[in-house]
Amino acid sequence: MSYLDVFSLEGKVALVPGGGGAIGSAIAGALAGAGAKVTVVDVTQERAEAAAEAIRAAGAEVLALAADVTTEADCERIVAATVERFGRLDIIVNCVGGGAGKVLFDAQDYPRDAWDWIMELNVRSTLLATQAAVKAMIKAGNGGVVVNISSVRADLGINAGYSAYVAAKGAISSLTRQWATEWAKHGIRVNAIRPTFVDTPQVAMLLDDPAFKAGVVNRIPLGRVGDTSDMTGPVVFLASDAARFVTGQIVGVDGGLTATQ
Ligand SMILES: NC(=O)c1ccc[n+]([C@@H]2O[C@H](COP(=O)([O-])OP(=O)(O)OC[C@H]3O[C@@H](n4cnc5c(N)ncnc54)[C@H](O)[C@@H]3O)[C@@H](O)[C@H]2O)c1
């Protein structure tokens, strides 16, 4: 028995909507590496399977599913399939979201369709997937863990047409605190990570501009943007028993950016 056993996810089952994405696939791999059996969910079977294959190659048990987690029916289906395959569900890490860079508009003119799309992609996806997972956790009576992905944009304005995204991430942070408060009685902990820019295809267009990137990096005390692997340790910690007294927290994974504001 080692002290490090409190960080182990051995015997746990994790559901990762968006697990085929840049951050999601890194997180799904890390959860599996820490011992969990993992269901990877993405919009197409190919995206889910690509991430699952890497996990399988590393020797872990994984299920790949295609689903649209902005629909109740698909969320119920992926939870049922996970419980059927692995016998339980302990952890959900919500990795569907983003889109900010694709819909930049002045705040006074922010179009309703772009607003609705960002809200669906970020808030509805997290809401519906979590509701389905938590209903199964409450029914099983073994407690559970929810980890959401917020953003520094929940707390920091940016002079770049981000109205819908900042509102969506603000909602994710607020729901994290609300759910932690409501579901503590079921032994379910709810936390979020709050990254700054992470070097991924979603933000490649912005970070490819050297002046923009320098402006971002200059404000980050650790002197660089995030890498997908920077996200994994905090998520594994929050998912593990090492964080058993941690709930309702929005954990900055931002190289110190928000500490300077
Ligand atoms: N990349 C960054 O700089 C950054 C910074 C802060 C926060 N975040 C957040 O991290 C999360 C992941 O971002 P990413 O950069 O890995 O994005 P990504 O686009 O690489 O990953 C998102 C994944 O979700 C999938 N997806 C989209 N809609 C779906 C749906 N309805 N049902 C199922 N799957 C769906 C996509 O196919 C994709 O694989 C997002 O919430 C994003 O806002 C990203």
What does this structure look like?
The protein is α/β, with parallel strands linked by helices. Helices cover 45% and strands 15% of the residues. It contains 8 helices and 7 strands. The chain has helices at 22-33, 45-57, 72-86, 112-140, 163-183, 201-207, 210-218, 228-239, and strands spanning 13-17, 37-42, 62-66, 91-94, 144-149, 188-195, 250-253. The longest helix is centred in the middle third of the chain and has 29 residues, at 112-140. It is globular.
Features:
globular; 7-stranded parallel beta sheet; 261 residues; alpha/beta; 15% strand; single chain; binds nicotinamide-adenine-dinucleotide
Strand % is 5-15%
Measured on Cα atoms, how large is the radius of gyration? 18 Å
Helix content: 40-55%
Q: Counting H and I runs of at least 4 residues, what is the number of helices?
A: 8
Strand order of the largest sheet: 3-2-1-4-5-6-7
| CA(first)-CA(last) distance | 42 Å
Bound molecules: nicotinamide-adenine-dinucleotide
Output the structural class: alpha/beta
Backbone shape: globular
N-to-C SSE series?
EHEHEHEHEHEHHHE
Output mean pLDDT. 97
